[in-house]
Specification:
Elements (H helix, E strand, L loop, with lengths): L23 E8 L2 H6 L2 H15 L3 E10 L8 H12 L4 E4 L2 H4 L4 H12 L3 E4 L9 H34 L11 E5 L5 E5 L1 H16 L3 H10 L6 H8 L7 E2 L8 E2 L8 H11 L21 E3 L6 E6 L4 E6 L7 E3 H13 L1 E3 L4 H15 L4 H26 L5 H28 L2 H13 L1 H7 L2 H11 L4 E4 L4 E4 L6 E3 L2
Parallel strand pairs: 1-2, 1-3, 3-4, 9-14
Antiparallel strand pairs: 5-6, 7-8, 10-11, 11-12, 13-16, 14-15
Helix pairs in contact: 5-17, 6-12, 7-8, 7-10, 8-9, 13-14, 15-16, 16-17
Length: 495
């Protein structure tokens, strides 16, 4: 009779026995902007505390990554990806970060990355938020910290969007200048967008389209001969963008506005060119990413196992999902399948045993993320005082007759708006965000997962879907039912 050692070769791959942890580690540091990287000591501070933490934990530092500015809203960062590749290749079991939001602020996306690392025996260790990620509760706490980081991002984004909306509504473009335009400063040293040399060539493309009815292929060839290389797809985007006739349309605007920039062509020329481009020879429109069809590829056909794709029937004005198997006739309208998914999510909730620990952890991470950034606070206070001084001088000049009433009211309104905006930001740094509001928001999400899914973007919906049901769902046209393959242990079925 052989011993158990004789059966070692039969051990299944992926077993936990093959994932022994070691004391090797890497350090990852980052800030969000170039200005932070160049003008403060945050990166050095992060690295210092990470090294001290590693020394206390008797960890051997193999390499340091980051040390630069990388946005953590997505996980497509160069240094971040290099770090992940290194730990997987060199058998490193620990990633040390100053705080969990330095690792990622993408919420459920980061949770998925950490889960994959955990399967390979790799842990993410936070200096300021220590948790035992080898226990289910520790993993849960870390996930909450990641979700809160995403929530914090959304709060900051909302404040930024307010200012962008205001600029756009006044006809001022924000962001990168469209092809054919460049950022310059006018006589008053104010930033504006102006027509570039590329724009002068693009102007010809509109005229060729309208007067000669040239195809995009023919136009791209002419442009290339003149020194401008542009793809057919990019050219189509140009023809469909009303910015080129002086009108701004933007996702942050509810209606078009007249721009302050110089138009490339007249509105008449733009509309004629757009009519030619919009001629579509069929009734179906397919898109790789479609906000109306977030369940594409996530739902699979129960009969043949092939993922569903989607399409749009123009004459009906409706979106549909269908099995991508040409020999299968399984299909369903978007409205019906989304209703199935809503009913499915309504049958699940966060495990009750985790609610109380969740409240405690939410309070902890809320207080952690809402601490005042003293450097930013000082700059804002200085800016606030400067605006107050401008208002006082404006009043004095008006009182002695140096300014007429029209100019006085115009500048007073401008300075007052700036003062109120800075004051709101200062209040938010002082803890203006209400803990009770955040707790209420978290409770609402726990009780209504569909609400969280419905309000998210296409990418956010995809992340939430795979977070809750990692292996996707099955749809049977015969039974008109949606079946679950695998469920995340954080949620339970309602009794």
């Amino acid at each position: 009779m052989g011993t158990l050692k004789n059966f070692q070769p039969f051990l299944r791959k992926g077993s936990t026995q093959s994932k022994e942890s070691n004391n090797h580690a890497v350090i990852y540091t980052r800030v969000s902007t170039k200005e932070q990287a160049e003008n403060n000591l945050s990166l050095d501070t992060q690295k210092k505390y990470c090294q001290e933490f590693a020394e206390r934990q008797k960890l051997i530092i193999r390499e340091c990554f980051g040390g630069t500015y990388e946005s953590a809203q997505t996980d497509e960062r160069r240094e971040f990806k290099n770090m992940l590749a290194f730990v997987k290749k060199h058998n490193v079991s620990n990633i040390v970060v100053y705080s969990i939001d330095r690792f990622s602020r993408s919420g459920t996306g980061a949770i998925g990355i950490i889960a994959e690392l955990s399967k390979k025996g790799i842990s993410v260790l936070s200096v300021t938020q220590p948790t035992d990620t080898k226990t289910s509760m520790g993993v849960f706490y870390q996930n909450i910290q990641l979700v809160f980081s995403q929530y914090d991002n959304e709060q900051r984004r909302a404040k930024c969007i307010t200012g962008m909306k205001e600029r756009l509504s006044r006809g001022n473009w924000v962001g990168k200048a469209p092809l054919g335009y460049c950022h310059v400063h006018d006589a008053n040293n104010k930033p504006v967008v102006a027509i570039s040399k590329q724009g002068e060539l693009l102007q010809k493309s509109f005229l060729w389209k309208v007067h000669e009815h040239l195809t995009n292929t023919e136009i791209t060839k002419r442009l290339k001969a003149l020194g401008l290389s542009v793809s057919k797809q990019r050219l189509t985007e140009v023809f469909r963008n009303p910015f080129y006739c002086g009108i701004i349309t933007h996702g942050l605007l509810s209606e078009p506005v007249m721009g302050s920039h110089e138009p490339l062509v007249s509105q008449e020329i733009f509309l004629k060119a757009n009519q030619i481009v919009n001629k579509v020879p069929h009734d179906y429109k397919h898109q790789v990413v479609n906000d109306d069809l977030p369940l594409k590829r996530f739902i699979k056909c129960k009969q043949c196992g092939v993922p569903f794709t989607g399409y749009f029937v123009k004459n009906k004005g409706k979106h549909y999902y269908k099995c991508n198997n040409p020999h299968c006739k399984s299909n369903i309208s978007k409205d019906k399948l989304h209703e199935h998914f809503r009913q499915l999510l309504n049958d699940f909730r966060i495990d009750e045993s985790l609610i109380e620990p969740l409240k405690n952890q939410l309070q902890y991470v809320f207080e952690h993320f809402c601490k005042v950034d003293t450097s930013e606070y000082a700059v804002l206070r200085k800016r606030f005082c400067e605006i107050e001084n401008k208002i006082q001088k404006l009043k004095e000049r008006f009182a002695i007759g140096e300014l007429d009433k029209t100019l006085y009211e115009q500048f007073m309104e401008k300075f007052t708006e700036e003062k109120e905006s800075v004051a709101k930001t200062i209040n938010s740094l002082n803890g203006g965000d209400d803990l009770a509001d955040f707790m209420a928001y978290a409770k609402e999400v726990c009780q209504n997962l569909f609400m969280l899914w419905e309000k998210g973007s296409y990418e956010q919906k995809q992340r939430l879907q795979y977070f809750l049901f990692p292996d996707g769902l099955l749809y049977s046209k015969e039974d008109n039912l949606v079946d679950v393959l695998k469920i995340n242990s954080i949620i339970v079925h309602k009794p």
